[in-house]
Design a protein that fits this description.
Blueprint: H1 7-13, H2 30-34, H3 41-50, H4 64-75, H5 79-83, E1 111-116, E2 134-137, E3 145-147, E4 156-163, E5 170-177, E6 184-185, E7 190-201, E8 207-218, E9 222-223, E10 229-234, E11 253-261, E12 264-276, E13 278-279, E14 313-314, E15 325-326, E16 352-356, E17 359-368, E18 374-379
Antiparallel strand pairs: 1-18, 2-3, 2-4, 4-5, 5-12, 6-9, 7-8, 7-15, 7-16, 8-10, 11-12, 13-14, 16-17, 17-18
């Protein structure tokens, strides 16, 4: 049995800003993390068809969480809505109480998720009270564990938000890490590393996905300040490795301040990143409302709601590479072979990860909807994806 959601129902939920604590619903969800997402790829392909994407253009996702985020991205609805009975038009779960359909029972209880709308300009500490993070328990020597927002175990928080005007979008990511209370740097101290997916936009409008790692290192002794941090980036071919390029050379901005936040009144480390974005008519036609004749309409072809994209976001072009790089709207990493997804005996990785002071602090996936809403979600049931 499937529940069909019409455009009017979609539009009522598209603006929701919420975080839902979602815990495991049993083995039918293949661990909640979607490490066996292959059986669910056809449901994403149904959504791709509804928004005008050819089956060959439908992104192959290795995890169920990424499939949910991609559906959220294309139909512009929150992940928890997609997972629930009302959002089950694609048949990704069953509303049958008998449980004999071969699908998991529709439930929101399998991941932590958050939704943040487009912001007109870069976000910072003053904006956090109006945004919703994902929460994690960060413990030295262990992977970051997603927990309920408001849980006493929560000590690390991440806020992904798309910012800026049409054609000049940036993905801002704030990591609010309450265990970092030290007020001083030691020169050459490794401070943090942040891993995130980017694409290289080639001249033929195809994209090459890569995984970038930003490493932050203290450059002076004394009080914590952004001007005592150096950021270098590895993982992007063609940009040099000895020494690796600086964050600024790749169009990446970062900052660190010690302050109180909505998550803790004790001054602690708050990291902020601004990542370039690539979203073009050629590579992301759904975001431009392309109809069946290939014409951009600025209307989501499924929901009927306006899209936030009419100009190409061309990321940043490093001089060393000569090609644009940036974060894609679609959750990553994806499978390189759609017929072998997920690949057997291969570790499955989160898209966005943070390690601060040697402690894993964040592991999540992010997508950006046609309305420029940032969705993020992390599964909570083992086995979980890993950070690279």
């Amino acid at each position: 049995m499937r529940t069909v959601v019409r455009s009017s129902a979609i539009s009522r939920f598209a603006g929701t800003v919420t975080t839902v604590w979602l815990c495991g619903v049993g083995s039918a969800w293949a661990g909640g993390g979607g490490l066996d997402a292959g059986p669910f790829q056809p449901f994403l392909q149904q959504v791709c068809g509804l928004v005008g994407l050819a089956p060959s253009s439908c992104p192959p996702m290795p995890t169920l969480t990424e499939i949910v985020l991609a559906i959220s991205e294309y139909q512009d609805t929150p992940p928890d809505f997609v997972r629930g009975p009302l959002g089950n038009f694609a048949g990704i779960c069953s509303v049958s109480s008998t449980g004999n359909t071969g699908l998991p029972i529709c439930s929101e209880f399998n991941a932590v998720s958050t939704v943040n709308p487009l912001a007109p300009s870069s976000i910072g500490l003053p904006d956090l009270p109006n945004l919703t993070p994902l929460a994690f328990q960060a413990v030295s020597g262990q992977p970051a564990t997603p927990v309920a927002l408001g849980s006493p175990l929560a000590n690390s928080f991440v806020y992904p938000v798309l910012t800026g005007p049409d054609g000049q979008h940036t993905l801002d990511v704030v990591v609010d890490y309450t265990p970092w209370t030290s007020k001083f740097f030691v020169i050459n101290q490794p401070v943090a590393s942040f891993t995130f997916p980017v694409v290289i936009l080639k001249a033929d409008n195809s994209e090459t996905p890569v995984t970038a790692t930003l490493n932050l290192t203290a450059t002076c002794n004394g009080a914590i300040a952004s001007n005592c941090l150096a950021g270098t980036v590895t993982g992007i071919p063609g940009t040099g490795t000895n020494p690796p390029p600086s964050a600024a050379q790749l169009g990446i901005q970062f900052g660190l301040q010690l302050a109180a936040s909505p998550n803790s009144p004790t001054p602690h480390g708050i990291f902020r990143f601004e990542l370039p974005v690539i979203a073009t008519l050629a590579t992301d036609p759904v975001h431009f409302g392309v109809n069946s004749s290939g014409t951009p309409t600025s209307i989501n072809q499924f929901s009927g709601q306006p899209t936030a994209f009419s100009k190409n976001d061309l990321g940043f072009t490093p001089k060393s590479l000569g090609l644009p790089i940036g974060v894609s709207p679609t959750p990553a990493p994806q499978c390189s072979d759609p017929n072998n997804c997920p690949p057997p005996n291969t570790p499955i990785h989160f898209g966005f990860c943070a390690t601060i002071g040697g402690t894993p602090a964040v592991g999540t996936y992010v997508s950006i909807s046609t309305a420029a809403t940032a969705y993020a979600s992390s599964p909570v049931s083992a086995p979980l994806p890993q950070c690279p």
